[in-house]
Backbone:
């Protein structure tokens, strides 16, 4: 039995409806990978397909250094609670991806400080940190860190869609592994030899309660950042509301010298409205002017007061909004199946 070089499943030639199908005997790739690679066509979604406990358990059994891949744009959703406990005594090298999406004006020192503060809050200990992204060539830093850890076998793991396979393709200067914007691309462990190192690509650990999971796959292009984020900055006074696509409404009460900076994909429309009209506008335009919407279209409201001088409202899978200045109250309306968090500003 051969394994698909792109996603790791066993290739089979019998059942077109089952995973691993290829019409040709002896092919290197399954039909799903072939169509993803060449036509950006998702034959079937695997976003709910892989049991995260099974993935973590199989990773824990493999000897080697853990390369934990984390998406800087979706940092909070990339976290794995109790990671050190799941991987007791193992060396963890953290590799941050998608740095290219954040503004160049943000220094790496500031970024590292933010990352270590967040890791402390999550009680996660790492042995090293590398920040990289598309178009950033610091492969040498990664290999130097692996050398220091005396790594031979390296297990590349992390949440779905953080960029594990993309990173490995970059390190090997090839395009062997299948990558896609759809979570759940890699389906089984895949061995990748790069020089003397034996890397293992792994299926992403399921991301729960993310906007990426809440919208239809066809809408992903509208919410995921496709290029460097251009932050949208608004100066606010008194009462203001914002509607992000058809996904989130943020109401700000009692603003005084307040600034809101939106770090979301550039394609997502940000609608600014008067607070007193916001609910009416939402009802009227949802699914028409205000798109995309989630599949379930069920929403929850949370009321918060500003906890930090500069506070981020983080919406998993969508980005974050940094609020500074005075605000009496903030009400966030968001899809019930999506996680939101409040943190000290990242930028
Ligand atoms: N801008 C940018 N996009 C990236 C980067 N790394 C990955 N991506 C994109 O993120 C998406 C997911 O990448 P993959 O490499 O398939 O992610 P993965 O972690 O292997 O995903 P699973 O196999 O589903 O767990 C793709 O659309 C990639 O093009 C990066 O450094 N910068
Ligand atoms: Mg992958």
Residues:
């Amino acid at each position: 039995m051969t394994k698909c070089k792109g996603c790791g499943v066993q290739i089979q030639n019998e059942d077109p409806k089952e995973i691993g199908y290829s019409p040709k005997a002896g092919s290197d790739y399954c039909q799903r990978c072939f169509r993803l690679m060449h036509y950006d066509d998702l034959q079937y979604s695997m976003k709910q397909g892989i049991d995260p406990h099974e993935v973590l358990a199989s990773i824990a059994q493999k000897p080697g250094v853990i390369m934990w891949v984390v998406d800087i744009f979706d940092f909070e959703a990339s976290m794995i609670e109790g990671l050190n406990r799941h991987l007791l005594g193992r060396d963890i090298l953290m590799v941050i991806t998608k740095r290219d999406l954040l503004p160049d004006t943000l220094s790496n020192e500031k970024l590292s400080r933010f990352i270590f503060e967040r890791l402390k809050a999550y009680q996660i200990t790492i042995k090293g940190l590398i920040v990289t992204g598309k178009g950033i060539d610091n492969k040498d830093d990664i290999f130097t860190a692996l050398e220091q850890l005396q790594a031979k076998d390296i297990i590349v793991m992390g949440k779905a869609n953080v960029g594990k396979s993309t990173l490995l393709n970059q390190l090997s200067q090839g395009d062997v592994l299948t990558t896609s914007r759809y979570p759940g691309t890699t389906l089984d462990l895949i061995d990748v030899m790069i020089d003397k190192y034996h890397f293992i690509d792994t299926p992403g650990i399921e991301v729960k309660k993310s906007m990426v999971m809440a919208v239809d796959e066809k809408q992903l292009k509208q919410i995921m950042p496709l290029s460097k984020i251009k932050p949208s900055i608004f100066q606010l006074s008194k009462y203001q509301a914002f509607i992000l696509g058809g996904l989130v409404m943020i109401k700000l009460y009692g603003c005084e010298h307040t600034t809101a900076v939106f770090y979301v994909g550039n394609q997502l429309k940000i609608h600014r409205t008067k607070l007193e009209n916001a609910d009416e506008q939402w009802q009227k335009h949802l699914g028409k002017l205000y798109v995309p919407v989630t599949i379930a279209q069920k929403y929850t409201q949370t009321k918060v007061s500003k906890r930090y001088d500069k506070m981020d409202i983080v919406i998993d899978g969508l980005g974050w909004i940094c609020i500074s200045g005075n605000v009496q109250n903030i009400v966030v309306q968001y899809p019930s199946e999506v996680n939101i968090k409040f943190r000290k500003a990242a930028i």
Notes: The longest helix spans residues 108-121. Residues 164-165, 185-186 surround magnesium ion (ligand 2) (CB under 6 Å). The two ends are 49 Å apart (CA to CA). The first strand starts at residue 65 and ends at 71.
